[in-house]
Automatic annotation (TrEMBL):
<dbReference type="InterPro" id="IPR036458">
    <property type="entry name" value="Na:dicarbo_symporter_sf"/>
</dbReference>
<dbReference type="InterPro" id="IPR001991">
    <property type="entry name" value="Na-dicarboxylate_symporter"/>
</dbReference>
<feature type="transmembrane region" description="Helical">
    <location>
        <begin position="179"/>
        <end position="198"/>
    </location>
</feature>
<dbReference type="InterPro" id="IPR050746">
    <property type="entry name" value="DAACS"/>
</dbReference>
<keyword id="KW-0472">Membrane</keyword>
<dbReference type="Pfam" id="PF00375">
    <property type="entry name" value="SDF"/>
</dbReference>
<feature type="transmembrane region" description="Helical">
    <location>
        <begin position="218"/>
        <end position="250"/>
    </location>
</feature>
<keyword id="KW-0813">Transport</keyword>
<dbReference type="GO" id="GO:0016020">
    <property type="term" value="C:membrane"/>
</dbReference>
<feature type="transmembrane region" description="Helical">
    <location>
        <begin position="83"/>
        <end position="106"/>
    </location>
</feature>
<keyword id="KW-1133">Transmembrane helix</keyword>
<keyword id="KW-0812">Transmembrane</keyword>
<feature type="transmembrane region" description="Helical">
    <location>
        <begin position="51"/>
        <end position="71"/>
    </location>
</feature>
<protein>
    <submittedName>
        <fullName>Na+/H+-dicarboxylate symporter</fullName>
    </submittedName>
</protein>
<feature type="transmembrane region" description="Helical">
    <location>
        <begin position="359"/>
        <end position="379"/>
    </location>
</feature>
<feature type="transmembrane region" description="Helical">
    <location>
        <begin position="149"/>
        <end position="172"/>
    </location>
</feature>
<dbReference type="GO" id="GO:0015293">
    <property type="term" value="F:symporter activity"/>
</dbReference>
Length: 422
């Protein structure tokens, strides 16, 4: 009997999770069946996420350090740096621009009565943080005691330390060859563990989607349907059209080939709503299915999981215009440019800030004088929207690794050709 592939098992898990979750949502929340079903789903989903988080920090640390150290072999470090950061800025700028355009055309929230949300806004206390304080806290979170960062799971600080360690190994050369070999072997062990954890992915993803489908407030979703449609529509447009178009123009890879290779990572990101939790699966997909070289994948993917947030930046820009429409404020071009820049900065800084989603959204609202308490309106639908934006965040990282590999290879070929002609 032919063995069913992991990809197919995960797809079955998605459909089963949505079907069972919708079935549970029809039951009384106080019934024993609902309580037992939700408990079992939470147990499966939490176990899967915890297993991914268990390998996350050692995987990020080793993949970044080894990736940077190995780039010296090809004398490509500066090329990869430039190409990676260039792609991240380009894709996030396009995402925010798309979100602002969609929000200006549809104008979600216009005519919606703010009175119905007044109670929520009064009960909710937003964590106020001026932009200057946000930047200071972000910079502070970058440079921490590495042992503390590793123990607390501060991904951004771990990435920074691993980058510096990798650069130090490059500068030190052969003196640190044994340390590099040790880190490479540890990286291979982590990837082996990821392979084992992925055998539980169909059940874990099913559990996460059962909980999502069973606990959504349909009445509230209907009230905010216009906002939800704009966010999901713009996010899908970026994920289905913009990113695949960039990929095709640069590498020639078709969207279907890319989606087939990255399907495990995209579904895991959708179900977990966490770029960090999906990172082990993303690395596995780009190396094994999309054939990105390990040194480039090990550098671009962990860095992208902390800095490259297309879906988040797009969401925060649309949310700012939605809140402005609710309170009857017309944002002019200069104010929308501030939203554009702040949404990008806030999305990039999100992983290193406590209560990241709420704090960064407040920063964007405050940048143009909108009431911070208005995020109380967004919180009930945030979990649903988070699934889509996280999937696009992860898709951006995978596209970035393929684009960077192509750019670096093209530049290297161009350099060697001009050198031989000289």
């Amino acid at each position: 009997m032919k063995k069913i592939s992991l990809n197919t098992q995960i797809l079955w898990g998605v459909f089963a999770g949505l079907f069972l979750g919708l079935g549970l949502s029809l039951l009384d929340e106080e019934s024993a069946t609902f309580q037992v079903g939700l408990y079992a789903a939470e147990l499966l989903g939490t176990l899967f996420i915890d297993l991914l988080k268990m390998v996350l920090i050692p995987l990020v640390f080793t993949s970044i350090a080894v990736g940077v150290a190995n780039l010296r072999v090809h004398q490509q470090m500066h090329k990869v740096w430039k190409a990676t950061l260039g792609f991240f800025l380009l894709s996030m700028a396009l995402a925010v621009l798309l979100g602002l355009t969609a929000a200006n055309i549809v104008r979600p929230g216009e005519g919606l009565q703010l009175a119905m949300f007044q109670d929520d806004m009064q009960k909710f206390q937003a964590a106020q943080m001026p932009l200057t304080e946000f930047i200071a806290q972000l910079l502070h979170s970058l440079f921490q005691n590495p042992m503390t960062a590793l123990a607390q799971g501060n991904v951004l600080a771990v990435v920074v330390f691993a980058l510096l360690l990798g650069i130090a190994m490059v500068v030190g050369g052969d003196r640190y060859a044994n340390i590099l070999i040790l880190l490479q072997e540890l990286l291979e062990l982590m990837l082996m563990l990821v392979g084992w954890i992925m055998r539980l992915a169909p059940l874990g993803i099913m559990g996460l989607l059962v909980k999502l489908a069973a606990t959504q407030d349909v009445a509230l979703l209907a009230t905010l349907v216009e906002f939800i449609v704009v966010v999901i529509g713009a996010t899908l447009l970026h994920g289905i059209v913009v990113l695949p178009l960039i990929l095709y123009l640069v590498t020639g890879m078709t969207p279907f080939k890319f989606w087939r290779g990255g399907r495990e990572a995209l579904i895991t990101a959708f179900a977990t709503s966490s770029s960090s939790a999906a990172l082990p699966v993303t690395l596995r997909c780009v190396e094994q299915h999309l054939h990105v070289k390990r040194d480039i994948a090990g550098f671009v993917i962990p860095l992208g999981a902390t800095l490259n947030m297309d879906g988040t930046a797009l969401y925060e820009a649309v949310a700012a215009l939605f809140v402005a429409n609710l309170v009857g404020i017309e944002l002019n071009l200069a104010q929308q440019m501030i939203v554009f820049l702040t949404a990008m900065l806030a999305a990039m800084g999100a992983p290193g800030i406590p209560s990241a989603g709420m704090v960064t959204m407040v920063v964007v609202l405050q940048s143009v004088g909108l009431p911070a308490e208005a995020i109380a309106i967004l919180l009930p639908v945030d979990r649903l929207l988070d699934t889509f934006r996280t999937a696009v965040n992860v898709e951006g990282d995978m596209v970035g690794s393929l684009v960077v590999q192509k750019w670096v290879r093209k530049e290297s070929m161009g350099g060697s050709r001009s050198g031989s002609e000289g």
